[in-house]
Here is the input.
Amino acid sequence: MSTRKRPLEGVKVIELASFIAAATTGRFFADLGADVIKIESAKGDPLRYTAPTEGRPLDMYENTTWELENANKRCISLNMKDPKGKEAFFKLLDDADVLITNWRIQALQRAGIDYESLKDKYPSLVYGICTGYGEYGPDKDLPGFDFTAFFARGGYLENLRQKSDVPMNVAPGLGDHNVGLNLAAGILAALYHAKLTGEGEKVETSLFESAVFNMGMMIQAAQYTDYGVKYPINIREASNPLNACWLTKDNRYVQTCMPDYNTYFKKFLKALGLNDMAEDEKYFPVQNLHENNLGTTVYDKVMAKFGEKDYSEWSEILTKADIPFSLAKNWEELLEDEQAWANDCFYKMKYPKGERILVKHPVKFQEMGPTPYNRGPLIGEHGPEILKEIGYSEDEIKSMMEDNTLYVWEDK
Here is the structure.
């Protein structure tokens, strides 16, 4: 392993956030060597308790979701409503480089920890905030999760469903991870500026804004109302029938992607053995396809052809023809995916009850080498040591614990 310093060593980050999106940002910084101090209430982040909805046992000592979002961090549990807790928070900010939060604007303003309230006292601080719907507009104060602000409001559920069916199922964390890394990119740019000039900055993004950006190509194209097919569609009626999922003889779905119909049509059809169709001018180029209204015919012929062979056979044929494709894999298959293991997507964590596979961040650094993977902290686990570092005495810490301003979780 490389002994090179991790790029954010010496950077101090205070994370005042719950759930996933902002925590993803903090986890990324912690992996890169920053000292990320997560602040929780005595009850703890609600994310600690989501195991039953994910199909996992609830166990503080084996909480795979908690590790994914909070590994390599330290944690202090402060009662922020107590003046002593608020004072400790401000002392933590005294030498902090970054503050990350996902509190709603009104809550930040009531607590006096919104950007405007802090920027004069901490002029070099980079203030990163992640919201559901953005800081402005009629819906700025609504609660936002990725199911609602990202997938629903951002255009995924209505546009990507089959026209004849209900919207797709969604899984937690998809939008949050996207937004968390977007926020990380913005904070890193602001941090670079702050280190050069001493000038802090406020960096903001939201689930909704990130979804709009992700959907940018199709949102822009929707202005051309006289062209194409209005979404939602049934995939059988898509403008490009080559970008679809095909059902094989052994009931597996294979997704192909050929954005430029004209480049791939003949090669793809010949690989499938549909040679006559490949040479028929009614189907090629794409202008002829649309003028003759034959997209559904191509789709039906290709779907029928895929039903004649198992996936293993199609995999060999499509690979040889250099057609972009992939098997639609389930999560259990991904745990054993050779490509994922070869690219360091996973980490084996040893727990008291055995070993589990955990997912790592997707950004890798060659010279720095693999980052450590320390379990996520228990509630308030590092509170006393953190307060000592900023000048609190043993007696002060003991007093804060006795009056529940400072809390350290214990297994009872």
Q: What stands out?
A: The radius of gyration is 26 Å.
